[in-house]
């Protein structure tokens, strides 16, 4: 699954290019609990097709009904939506909250943009596909849109008759090694909205790859990191257990703005990796502060699937700016269990040794 915002905007672009009428809905305010955060977007075509989400589904159903009736002209009371953007609130009363499936006390406000111009949508999609962060400004008086590059993500804002929302390119994940854990992790990353690339020069591993949607390449990992050009929405994770493949790739990744750089391995392997990179590649302890390992959050994982869940949870926490307690770090948790005498013996060549 691709980045949801990009998917919505691409679909809206295609509808407008085909001459279809459509609207773009943006969550601009919430009060109390809300199913979707401020800034979430959804597009609705005149035939009722919808992409994206602004709630758990009930508000979408109401928007689809009201606007398809208007577009069809079957009911005189439903006028075809047009003109400048308008605001609409859902869940203002307890009855409406219940009707629209909002949590108790939840209220959200949407901005509806009618028939957005094709040119600005095309330009926005091109910028996102080129990996740029874009600030989209809508003039509420007439719906005029202006676009500008942004230096950092910003919260949606409304002031002085303008709505400003920042859109970022797809989140990306580069996985080194095409083993079993990688298959599970790639699957989870794809349905979490990451574009996934798997790099493994070993033909015997690539030949058995079975996850559709992930790009698989045969380059040497360090060359692939350079070509991948990790940015602030990128993660690089080494999963081969082979220093010849992992170490150089990690060293290249640490030079980039990637928000997450990590490698699988036990606490002992992690310490050995740090030592190698200091002794043989001239890195310093400060250079290695961003290198995560053992990766994942501690959930007692043993199987490849559980280990992948653990890693994906940590990646998402870092992506979302959540600082996890130290006792959830794999290394720290295992150290504590070892002190308490509760840690089971590791399996030297099995999955448990990977943690």
UniProtKB/TrEMBL annotation:
**Residue span, XdhC- CoxI domain:** 15-72
XdhC Rossmann domain location: 173-315
Its source organism is Ramlibacter monticola
Protein's name in the database: XdhC family protein
What top-level branch of life does the organism fall under? Bacteria
Q: Which Pfam families match?
A: XdhC_C, XdhC_CoxI
């Amino acid at each position: 699954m691709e980045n949801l915002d990009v998917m919505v905007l691409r679909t809206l672009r295609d509808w407008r290019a085909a001459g279809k009428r459509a609207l773009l809905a943006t969550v601009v305010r919430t009060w109390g609990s809300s199913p979707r955060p401020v800034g979430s977007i959804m597009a609705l075509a005149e035939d009722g097709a919808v992409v994206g989400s602004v709630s758990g589904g009930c508000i979408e159903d109401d928007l689809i009904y009201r606007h398809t009736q208007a577009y069809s002209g079957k009911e005189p009371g439903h006028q075809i939506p047009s003109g400048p953007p308008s605001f609409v609130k859902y869940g203002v009363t307890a009855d409406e909250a219940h009707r629209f499936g909002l949590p108790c006390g939840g209220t959200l406000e949407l901005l509806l943009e009618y028939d957005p111009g094709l040119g600005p949508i095309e330009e926005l999609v091109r910028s996102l596909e080129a990996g740029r962060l874009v600030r989209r400004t809508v003039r509420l008086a007439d719906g005029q849109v202006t676009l500008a590059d942004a230096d950092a993500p910003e919260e949606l804002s409304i002031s002085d008759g303008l709505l400003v929302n920042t859109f970022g390119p797809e989140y990306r994940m580069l996985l080194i090694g095409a083993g079993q854990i990688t298959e599970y992790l790639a699957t989870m990353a794809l349905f979490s909205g990451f574009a996934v690339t798997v790099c493994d020069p070993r033909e015997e591993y690539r030949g058995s790859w079975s996850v559709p949607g992930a790009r698989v390449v045969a380059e040497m990992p360090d060359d692939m990191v350079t070509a991948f050009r990790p940015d602030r929405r990128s993660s690089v994770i080494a999963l081969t257990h082979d220093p010849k493949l992992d170490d150089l790739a990690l060293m290249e990744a640490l030079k980039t703005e990637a928000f997450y750089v990590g490698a699988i391995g036990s606490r002992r392997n992690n310490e050995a990796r740090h030592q190698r990179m200091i002794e043989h590649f001239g890195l310093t302890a400060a250079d290695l502060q961003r290198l995560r390992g053992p990766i994942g959050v501690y959930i007692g994982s043993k199987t490849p699937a559980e280990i992948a869940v653990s890693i994906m949870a940590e990646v998402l926490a870092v992506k979302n700016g959540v600082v996890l307690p130290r006792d959830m770090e794999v290394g720290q948790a295992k150290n504590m269990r070892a002190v308490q005498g509760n840690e089971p013996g590791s399996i030297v060549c099995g999955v448990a040794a990977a943690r």
